[in-house]
Specification:
This protein has seven helices and ten strands. With 238 residues, the protein is α/β, with parallel strands linked by helices. Bound molecules: adenosine-5'-diphosphate (2 copies). InterPro entries: AAA+_ATPase, ABC_transporter-like_ATP-bd, ABC_transporter-like_CS, ABC_transpr_PhnC, MetN_ABC_transporter-like, P-loop_NTPase.
Length: 238
């Protein structure tokens, strides 16, 4: 589904590659956790897959189509096919749950004061279904600034899913959450992966979570893949 071909990324003004000659293929059934110390290149890797970062060298293909040189058509495909969740949720604090979820499909609209008139009944109904799916129905009209971390990340996931992507990417989505909530969010991501058949690729620094949920673990060090295999094969030294 995703093919990464000879990809290197070097940031302007630096002398080392943040990612170095990465060759990987991901398929639909994969639930991938990416491990590695701070600075290993995990965030660069996720950002390169979703088009926020352009490879310095190499190509990324989605279902055979190159998506890595950032023309408008490619960016539209990437935005539609890939949902993304973030460590700090990246929600709009003063907007409500449903308003934040709608931004995932329609972007930020100046007039969010009244949903009616700006969104069709079908669009609102669809947003409500996704919200209900995340267990957030009762919080629909609550401003997200008043929610707990776990609730905020559920809103983040709902926002990522409203476009019905095929791929879900996470850049340390549980790094700001306590262990119990982190586990809950991973269980939810795994359930969504199974039910919606989402290719899921997540950066995480908690080895136990990766071993519990991943179907495949990648470990990065200094921009290189030093482990690629099943959770059973992974040891702390990898
Ligand atoms: P991780 O997510 O594993 O902590 P990153 O992908 O953030 O790793 O960083 C990989 C390397 O790239 C690090 O050496 C980091 O300092 C460098 N880096 C990340 N972002 C930038 C940037 N915008 N400009 C220059 N160097 C960067
Ligand atoms: P319904 O799902 O209730 O039939 P509509 O077909 O009227 O809703 O769709 C309203 C909006 O919500 C459209 O912009 C549509 O793209 C989106 N939407 C609703 N259901 C889906 C779906 N299953 N997949 C993708 N988008 C959907």
């Amino acid at each position: 589904m995703i093919d990464i071909k000879k990809v290197s990324v070097r940031y302007r003004g630096t002398t080392e590659d943040a990612l170095s000659d990465i060759n990987l293929s991901f398929k639909k059934g994969d639930f991938i956790c990416i491990l590695g110390k701070s600075g290993a290149g995990k965030s660069t890797f996720i950002r390169t897959i979703n088009g926020l970062q352009t490879p310095t060298i190499g190509e990324i293909h989605l279902d055979g189509l190159q998506i890595s040189n950032k023309n408008e058509k490619q960016l539209r495909i990437v935005r539609r096919e890939m949902g993304m969740v973030f460590q700090h949720f990246n929600l709009i604090p003063r907007l409500t749950v449903i308003q934040n979820v709608l931004t995932g499909k329609f972007g930020y609209r100046n007039n969010f004061k009244s949903l009616i008139g700006w969104f069709t009944p079908g669009e609102l109904e669809h947003a409500e279904r996704v919200i209900s799916d995340m267990g957030l129905s009762k919080l629909r009209d609550r401003r997200v600034e008043h929610l707990s971390g776990g609730q905020k990340q559920r809103v983040g996931i709902a926002r990522a899913l409203i476009q019905q992507p095929k791929i879900l990417l996470g850049d340390e989505p549980v790094a700001s959450l306590d262990p119990g909530t982190s586990n809950e969010i991973f269980a939810l991501l795994k359930e969504l992966h199974n039910r919606l058949e989402l290719l899921t690729i997540i950066n995480v620094h908690d080895i136990d979570l990766a071993k519990r949920y991943a179907t495949r673990i990648l470990s990065l060090k200094d921009g290189e893949i030093i482990f690629d295999g099943s959770p059973d094969e992974f040891t702390e030294d990898d």
